Amino acid sequence: ILSRDDVPVTLRESLMTGLSERLQSFAASMVPHSAQKAEIYTFEAREKATVLLSVGQDMRSIEALVRQLHDQNRLTPSLILRAAFMGNMEFVTQSIAFLASIPVRRVASLLKMPGWFGLKAVCLKAGLSRQNVTALKLAQDAAADLQLDGSEADIDTFSRRMIERTLTAYKNLDEADQVYLLDMLVKFSEGETRKLATRLLE
């Protein structure tokens, strides 16, 4: 059901969330001392799956998904940034537009403006922090030079490349922003990229 395009994305997201919560409870009951780790892993996997569910959806479907996530208090800065680092700027744009109560086309235009002004203005209106804006700007700049063919199979590669690009730019930030960005990268990345971000945090 989760992979069927004829099932509304909002329903698939609800089913996926319910399943992940049951799996988390099962894992915690089997190994009680690892409950916190299971919660973290489940949260990260659910965020990634949510972003993947929105890939290839039309604007109305993404808008409905964004509204559902907001109603369930899960339209978080972490989810929006993860979408950006996975190259899903449609989800990012819809999310910011909803949170800022600004038309989607206007937000899309502001996000594409050169420099920081447009991005910062709309993101702060949406309730994102200054550090969220910094991370989002780096992701946006990296995404501008990369191409995504729209297939789910391409997203992991795209995400890794964008994270690597962002890692090369983080040294230009102040220390607080560096730590925040690296925390985000540790959470979003995998394999060697995660190891690198972890080492830089030490």
Query: What's the story with the biggest beta sheet?
Result: none
Number of strands: 0
How helix-rich are the residues, as a percent range? over 70%
C-alpha geometry: globular
Cα distance spanning the termini: 43 Å
Task: Give, in order, the helices and strands.
Answer: HHHHHHHHHHH
Helix/strand/pairing class, anyone? mainly alpha
Low-pLDDT segments, ≥5 res: none
Q: Percent of residues in beta strands?
A: under 5%
Please tally the helical runs, counting DSSP H or I stretches of 4 or more residues. Answer: 11
Rg estimate, integer Å = 17 Å
Structural notes for this entry:
By secondary structure, this protein is mainly α. Helices cover 75% and strands 0% of the residues. Helix 3 (59-71) crosses helix 5 (89-100), helix 4 (77-85) packs antiparallel against helix 5 and helix 5 crosses helix 6. It is globular.
Entry keywords:
202 residues; 0% strand; mainly alpha; globular
Helix/strand layout:
Blueprint: H1 9-30, H2 35-54, H3 59-71, H4 77-85, H5 89-100, H6 104-111, H7 117-125, H8 130-144, H9 152-169, H10 175-188, H11 191-201
Helix pairs in contact: 1-2, 3-5, 4-5, 4-8, 5-6, 5-7, 6-7, 7-8, 8-9, 10-11
Task: Give a concise summary.
The chain is mostly helical and 202 residues long. It contains eleven helices and no strands.
